[in-house]
């Protein structure tokens, strides 16, 4: 295990910041500096434990530096927090085009080498958070001071966080679950790392997903709906994560549907309503958003790197680096509120013809991580796979009708209906969570780019380009990992 995964409670508590409530956007009282508190003290008080959890979520927002103690900022705009990992997936597809700016290697599918920063960041970032989750679970479990109700809730938070990040590791560093479930590349850690820890041997992908599913199912039982703000995982968000995982395993469509419905509330027509379209897609209080990064716009101005807004917005001071494939633009009807594309450059360069105004960048632009509309589409896919095509069409139409007043109920069936659901996922979620890459990987489909792209690359189904190499630094530090994993 790499040394910088052996993280202390002292370090994380220094990072604790005041998050805002998702409803009122009023600050919580900022916790006092608790650096140096021993673990028994941290886990003796509910408020301090909550501050520790707040610090974990704050690490989701870059910039990310694997050694904050060395006095050198080695972070880059494409290795921020969770948003950077999502955006790296986003521009690997066909719908969006990246200029020769940050994320250019991800866009060209040239980012998987064992010594590359994409590989190192993605591994280290996720295992850092997994270690924090293990610290949380162990500290709360062994606390003699917390009551049992509090313990259950905090342990549930830890398991949901651990499951979410193991899911990211599995997506990023292993083949698709259904193409090679026996793939053995990722180690499992259920205890906090210490200075004496030795890295574990890798486990099978089946074992990784068994852990993810077990953690999520146990967490959902004890997580409340109430939370300090939408930057925190609650029962609905955990159900949403479970629904996403089941899209990958594809072995329990009934649970995928019920988890998605628990996440979006069960009434699709009201769940999909959003005021963000045409307004910059930057307001976490929108009822469609289940989970997101909050930006307060004052003391977080260092997050000038926050994707997708700072890359996709061409109308403000930003990187102005992301363009839209003309053929993707043409997939939207003229009356669709999501058709937010402009030709502002009148460029003769084909890939620079259109940009999107879906995302408006300011220092207070919140970032979406999960929305109810996505859950409605997961439910539609689940119903399709359960053989209930009429319900799948109704769920699909609930979203389509809200986005386009001229939409009509689909008459598609079979593969045509499934393809329509997948297209709707791309139209609804483009730029946000890497939906095109995610769907291609889990469904064992290729990514074929149009000639309009700046870099034309075709990625075959089940290609090794769908996952990263194990970082060389991990192989060097962990005696139970070896070079053969990258051959």
| Strand line-up of the largest beta sheet | 1-5
CATH topology (level 3) name = Serine Threonine Protein Phosphatase 5, Tetratricopeptide repeat
β-sheet strand percentage: 5-15%
The CATH class label is Mainly Alpha
Structural class, please?
mainly alpha
Determine the number of helices (DSSP H or I, runs of at least 4 residues).
18
The whole-number mean of residue pLDDT values reads 90
Number of strands: 10
Helix content: 40-55%
Helices and strands, in order, run as HHHHEHHHEEHHHHEHEHEEEHHHHEEH
Distance between the termini: 20 Å
- The residue ranges in which pLDDT falls below 50 over 5 or more consecutive positions are 1-35
Number of domains: 1
Taking all Cα atoms into account, the compactness measure Rg is: 22 Å
Oligomer: single chain
Biggest beta sheet summary: 2 strands, antiparallel
Family: Belongs to the SusD family.
Keywords: Cell outer membrane, Membrane, Signal
Domain RagB/SusD: 364-482
Signal peptide: 1-26
